[in-house]
Amino acid sequence: RKEVEQDPGPFNVPEGATVAFNCTYSNSASQSFFWYRQDCRKEPKLLMSVYSSGNEDGRFTAQLNRASQYISLLIRDSKLSDSATYLCVVNLDYGQNFVFGPGTRLSVLP
Amino acid sequence: DTAVSQTPKYLVTQMGNDKSIKCEQNLGHDTMYWYKQDSKKFLKIMFSYNNKELIINETVPNRFSPKSPDKAHLNLHINSLELGDSAVYFCASSQWDPGQDNNYGYTFGSGTRLTVV
């Protein structure tokens, strides 16, 4: 089993749609979780951390399920500018060894 | 002010050459990293330095040698470049406290696109 796996994409959705991405991780000792977005030919940028209790930032909601070892990202009211690749990031242990998932590509269509 | 800056942005070179990529961060972070993103877009860690000390060294050919003169700088030197080294190399930094729920992850540089011909 790969360390971090994500929904295979691409996701093509119309503007205004709600879209959800899932990510599973293999190491039950993982402590820190993040969602990053990466635009074409750009560096990854932190979208949001994922807290134990779940957290929301505007149209974006992140959830963590430790028992099932997955995290999710929900985007409501999709905008054209949300088109990007979304990367799930998990640390493998108590250290700073973070592993990136393969990414899920989202295209929001007019 | 750029938080994590790496140079050069583009690098085209011939097989067998030796090249260096430089990275500097002005965020005061303790830890710096080099990541490689290949043509399939997978981001894989290569090295990590914490306060100038190597803490992660993934399975990378020993043609790749990182150097951290101080905690704000992490350079990557590559000897005898091969075609398969063509990729985008990202430098990143972080300030991370174990057990805290408010770690902010990485800040990445804008990448160095290396093409070996």
Describe, in plain words, how this protein is organized in 3D.
The complex is a heterodimer of chains A (110) and B (117). Helices cover 0% and strands 52% of the residues of chain A. With 110 residues, chain A is mainly β. Chain B has strands at residues 4-7, 10-13, 19-25, 31-37, 43-50, 53-57, 64-70, 73-78, 87-94, 107-108, 112-116. The mean pLDDT of chain B is 89.
**Euclidean distance between termini CA atoms of chain B:** 34 Å
Give a count of the beta strands of chain B, DSSP E runs of length 2 or more.
11
Biggest interface and residues each: A-B, 24 and 27 residues
Please tally the helical runs of chain A, counting DSSP H or I stretches of 4 or more residues.
Answer: 0
Summarize model confidence as the mean pLDDT of chain A.
Answer: 91
> What is the radius of gyration of chain B computed over CA atoms, rounded to a whole number of angstroms?
14 Å
Order of helices and strands of chain B: EEEEEEEEEEE
**In one word, what is the shape of chain A?**
globular
Radius of gyration of chain A: 13 Å
Q: What's the quaternary structure here?
A: heterodimer
What share of residues are in beta strands of chain A? over 45%
Poorly predicted segments of chain B = none
Q: What is the number of E strands of chain A?
A: 11
Count of DSSP helices of chain B? 0
What is the strand and helix layout of this fold?
The complex is a heterodimer of chains A (110) and B (117).
Chain A lengths: L3 E3 L4 E4 L4 E7 L7 E6 L6 E5 L5 E3 L2 E6 L4 E6 L8 E8 L6 E3 L3 E6 L1
Chain B lengths: L3 E4 L2 E4 L5 E7 L5 E7 L5 E8 L2 E5 L6 E7 L2 E6 L8 E8 L12 E2 L3 E5 L1
Parallel strand pairs in B: 2-11
Antiparallel strand pairs in B: 1-3, 3-8, 4-5, 4-9, 5-6, 7-8, 9-10, 9-11
